[in-house]
Amino acid sequence: MVPMFDSYRFLDGVAKRVMQHWSSLRVATPIPWTPLAKPLSQCTLAIVSAAALASSDRPFDLQIERLDPWFSDPSYRVLPHSTTTGEVQSFHLHINPAFARQDLNSVMPLERLAELVASREVGDSAPSHYSYIGYTLRPKRLLQETVPAIVGRMRQEHVDAVLLVPV
Amino acid sequence: MIPELTVSTGAPRIAAVEHPFGLTVGMPGDAPGQLAVLRATLQALATISEPGSVVDLQLAWNDDATLNTTPPQPPPIVSYLRRHPWAIPRFFNRTPPEPIQSGAQ
Fold first, then answer.
1. CA–CA separation, B27 vs A99, rounded Å?
2. Are residues B79 and B56 in the same domain?
3. Is B97 part of the contact surface with chain A (CB cutoff 8 Å)?
4. Which of residues 81-100 of A touch B (CB under 8 A)?
5. Are B89 and B105 in the same domain?
6. For B104, which of A25, A68, A95 is closest by C-beta distance?
């Protein structure tokens, strides 16, 4: 017998109630849909991680969230496809950043994607991958500035599919 | 992760994996496990035909692992709500107050 998926397995009482309520606050918009135009073995894939991954010389500005806890730095970072563990760290204030520090693939599986490209299961890894802070209750700037910038760059690099990794 | 929450955003294709926060793709160092998640997710990408569909990847999480998945300090919103409990309904309903400073939206 296949056990049922438990979305709230890792949440305590209060957080569980909040997430259940947020899940009920559906936004009534059409779901954007683009059929996959070609086999994965011919697709260029890009990964977007919500883990706030950035290099130490250009970190996310955490003071924004510390001063206004309903908001966070809406910028994004570009991670070249060859980025490895140790070159970036997670600046997300809602998760334990140690896991990404130990193995970037836990939240941004670039090396795993490279392996799938090597085995020809995926056509190619895009030159650029992306990360942002996956927490904000004021998403306006994220949606109006960050997302269009990322999409524009993906189009330039002929990305066929995007994997969004929440944390 | 929380597929119901992702569904509520209108995401076109959702792969559901029952992993702790901060470990979406898998444990550090577990390359086979990470590869299984990625491979199954991409398989879902290739096979989902109905917008908004959720595919349960059915990849078990080892509950025996001793993990600390909490951040080093409470997130700022948690500290804020402890000091300002009257703001909890706003957080619960995702209706934040007006920005403290201009541009901070």
1. 8
2. no
3. yes
4. 90, 92-100
5. yes
6. A68
Give the β-pairing of A128-132 and A76-80: antiparallel
What residue numbers bound the domain in which B28 lies? 1-62
Q: Identify which of B23, B32, B49 has the alpha carbon closest to the alpha carbon of residue A106.
A: B23
A69 part of contact set with chain B, CB < 8 Å: yes
Q: Looking at the 3D structure of chain B, how many domains does it have?
A: 2
SS3 A17: helix
pLDDT in tens, A44-93: 999 999 999 999 999 999 999 999 999 999 999 999 999 999 999 999 99
Contact B7, A23 (CB under 8 A): yes
Euclidean distance between CA atoms B80 and A31, whole angstroms: 34
Taking the model in full, what pTM does it have? 0.94
Whether A70 contacts A137, CB under 8 Å: yes
Output DSSP code: residue A30.
P
Q: HSE of A53 in the Cβ direction (CA atoms, 13 Å)?
A: 33
Q: Are A57 and A138 in contact (CB under 8 A)?
A: no
- d(CA A121, CA B39) in angstroms, rounded, equals 9
The radius of gyration of chain A's CA atoms, rounded to the nearest angstrom, is 17
